[in-house]
Fold each of these.
Amino acid sequence: MTQHAETIARLYTPSPTCTCSPADSTGPHPTTPDAAADLLKSVARARKSADHQELNRLVILLLGPCPAASARAQALRDVAERRKS
């Protein structure tokens, strides 16, 4: 039960960097504009190649729970702003 409580606390404590488990098969969540841009390029490649398993893994990196969700959202906003320019 203690481990469960610690996991919940870790997920809901805001962080500027991804502190998710490195053993997680999805990998680190993007928290910088460059990492977010790279991830979006990977999403496009997986979609074009119809690699559904990889696409699912990448979408989880974009949308899955992470203590650094605010940093991830800002990184994605920054990428969107770059593309407007």
Note: The chain has one domain: 2-84.
Amino acid sequence: MIVPRTLRLPAERSLFLFGPRQTGKSTLIAETYARPSCLFYDLLNSEDFRRLSARPETLRREILAAAELKEVKHVIVDCIASMKKEYKPNEEDTYHT
């Protein structure tokens, strides 16, 4: 049974969505943000998890590449808590303004 949500996620702002397991966070995200305009990483998907665990800097590079091309409006990382390995960026991964 799907419960109608009263929460409206912002279309033009960043956010973190936290909550207990199995409460519909992923469903809410999927219903709110269209996939073609999103970079979507599902860390429960073993392929995404292995790829980003092995080389965490990949996430940053993919986001910056998509932003340069203006292809995406949102970046969604689902189940980020599953990334328990501590990541320490090297000089190449550090953002400079």
Note: The beta strands are 38-42, 74-78.
Amino acid sequence: MLKIAAMAAAALASAGLSSPLQAQEGALSPVQQEFYAELLAMGDVCSELPQFRVHKDDLQGWVTQNLASSSEDTLDTVLDLRAAKIEAMQADTLAVREMPPGASRTRAVSEHYADVVGRCLRMAQHDEAGRFFQRN
């Protein structure tokens, strides 16, 4: 478990901005945990799309600062949620790739891509996340 906490600290290091989402005394709510996990997962994904630019170092630093007072269990939860989100997107991508060529596959590719771009767009338009996710 200490290895996971160390990995989280290393993966989430850099700058810092204060936020209303900043962890206060006590555990983060499930909504906050979900938000931080989505930020981290989509930071990786959106940075690979030509339509978006992600300031990953600043994002990771901001998340680190906001999670600094969180418990190891909370960090583990956020990282597990992040991993689950990435795994789900990878599974969706694999399922689309394995479809036989044709109209169904073309439609599935379009829907999958639109879903990912939509999630990145939501990040870019979000009051907090928009600092780190920008459209090109």
Note: The chain is about 65% helix and 5% strand.
Amino acid sequence: MLFGNFSLAFLVLFFLPLAERLHVTPDIADEQLRNVYDYIIVGGGTAGLTIANRLSENPAVSVLVLEAGPLDDARNLSIPGGLLPVPGTIGSGGWQKYQWELTTEPQTYLSNQSVGIPQGKAVGGSSILNGLCWSRGSVSDYDGWEKLGNKGWSWDELLPYFKKVVHVSYPQYFYDQSSNVLDGFAELGLPIIGDVNNGTAAGAMILPSSMHPGNQTRFDAREAHFDSASLSTSAHNSSQRVMGVEFAPNNKSKARSVSCTREVIVSAGAIFTPTLLQVSGIGPSDVLKSLDISVKIDLPGVGYNLQDHPMVYANYYYRNESYFTSGEIADDVYDEVAEEYIRNRTGPWTAPLINTVAFPSLRSATKDWKQFMDKSLGNNFPSNAPNSGQLTVAAQKTFSRGTVRPSSSSIFDLPRLDPRYCSDPIDCEIIVLGLQMNTKLIQTNAMKELMPEAESAFDTTDHETLMKHVMEKITTERHPSGTAAMMPLELGGVVDPELKVYGTCNLRIADASIMPLIPSAHLQASVYAIAEKAADMIKSAKPDCRIGERLPFPPRSRPTT
């Protein structure tokens, strides 16, 4: 596997005769770069690196990965500043170079507020920035994918791919408050889940993390699938079918081309994958024509079906100073905590950002859950705040759907993101129910041991007050998905169960964008599973795509928002 690391603004796909030639964009003066590769992967993040590693296990093939973000030496991502490889730490602001600073369009249903949705921009993608949470969704999440016409994507058939990731463990350090939170949920009647990844997600639990059990460091896609990979120097196939990649650092730089003999796999994430397709001429014809983009494939589902996990931060403060918090790692103890981690790999720095979670069902949150369902088919956390905690509420199975659209015909312009948060009011209602449940949690005997103070949204269960809080403070878990959905074309799908883009025979997508329905979990584990399954599909595929071949479309309809 050869990795092309480029300080570029964006990648772009261009089609000549479809399936005859495919172009993409960054800049490189790397003399090691060949003119032809068997596989080209656009996006060196969680999914892209996983697929690249699996494909390069075969020494007879060559793989090129294109990534816009930096390829830093892992030793540079170290204490005390910048992005730290220490679980639970983000450093003192140096992480900005490792993420795309994306912001939504003003949200109509949130008083026209915009919401930030930063995404990973580095070798390893968002896996180097996430909260390390390792959770699978419920059995019904993935069985739902299969019921939409995606044979082979049920829980049972994905389970072996979930299990291929080995470096997942529980952190060695837990804040004592975690026990109070779990006991409090138990008082409210929620079950405490032992095996959090067995497909029964409803309940309270301690989450495992994507970290090394031995040295207690973050285990991301770069370390798992890039640092351990070897270069392939084999000869290429002599196939007459040609696909290519064109790349440049910006719109003023000279582009360079690289050809591909087998497939292009786009793994640029749920925001940039649909952007790449549309700028390439694959997407809704009306959108493309409005931007003067030549329509190569009229594929209405591209960029639709955007789903996310909207959430609200809610703080609680307490007077019992016998409980240590991360906010107390001030200057006087910072060096001590750092030294403990560096020498022993123990202490607070081994605790991830999130370790205690609950996935209460709607049934457990309100007795009126049936009536409730019939109604619809900002961060305010102070830095270094001592004696405080956070009980974040996020809607997991959302009903709102949004869009990702290019802002122009140039890939160098950031896309327009419109998640349409709370366009279906049930999503915000669910968050309000979660805040009401948090208020009850704070009042349990277990949480009273902390001597909590009334603060933020925890001093009331009043619906109007809490809804106002939600509308003002809503943010996101940064889990965009669904924008190139694996569904039948007539339902607005973009890829088939083999992850091939409809109308093509040599273009696949493998990342969170193919999820037809967002799972009730952090997305990291699901993205790894998608990538592992995609790699097996690609390795077993027969190269039978002819030059310029266009596959016939099944019947379709245009999705609505």
Note: Residues 307 and 481 are 5 Å apart (CA to CA).
